[in-house]
Amino acid sequence: MDLFLCLILGLNSDKCRIFMMADVKRVSRTFKDISLSFLPHPVTGDLGVIKNERAIRQSVRNIVETIPGEKFFNPLFGSDVRGQLFENANYAAAFAIEDQIVNSLQNFEPRIDDIVVKVDLFLDQNELGVSIAYRIVGEEFPPQNYTFILTSTR
């Protein structure tokens, strides 16, 4: 909030300073999620908790593998990578998959930035190698690189 707006609202300098401080962007310190293995903690018996880079890595994988319409009340969530796996494997399809992954991560994962996706075709094995490089926003984590294989299952 600038000084001109404070004068229009009739705020004194102390109140204006408080409103100006309210514009400070908040930075999260930790990211937590439950482990999808659902194995209980050996001591407490609670569900396992994953933190920071592992939680974001799990979220990235879930976004890529979720089919749009699969998540209740959010039919746009996910990417249509699974549908592309049954198309003819060529470089145009690989480029389309790269584009879908980047768009879905930009739309549904606000904790990451500077997303670079590379898809490698393994025609003999009928697989796609996916490598996703990204930076975690708000913390000083090193750049992350996550690689996995996508296969078409029938």
Overview of the structural elements:
- With 154 residues, this protein is an alpha+beta fold.
- It folds into two domains: 1-27, no CATH class; 31-151, Nuclear Transport Factor 2, Chain: A (Roll).
- It contains five helices and five strands; from the N terminus they run ααββαααβββ.
- The strands form two sheets. The protein has a three-stranded antiparallel sheet, covered by helices on one side. It has a two-stranded antiparallel ribbon with strand order 1-2.
- A hairpin with a 7-residue loop joins β4 (127-136) and β5 (144-151).
- The longest helix has 18 residues, at 91-108.
- It is globular.
- The mean pLDDT is 81.
Coarse morphology: globular
Structural class: alpha+beta
User: Segments where pLDDT lies below 50 for 5+ residues?
Assistant: none
Mean pLDDT: 81
Query: What fraction strand?
Result: 15-25%
Instruction: Enumerate how many helices there are, as a single number.
Output: 5
| Rg from alpha-carbon coordinates | 21 Å
CATH class of the largest domain: Alpha Beta
Number of domains: 2
Assign the CATH architecture of the largest domain: Roll
Across the major sheet, the strand order is: 3-4-5
Strand tally: 5
Q: Report the major sheet.
A: 3 strands, antiparallel
Q: Termini separation (Å)? A: 57 Å
**Which percent range fits the helix content?**
25-40%
CATH names the topology of the largest domain as: Nuclear Transport Factor 2, Chain: A
Written as H for each helix and E for each strand, in order along the chain, the element string is HHEEHHHEEE
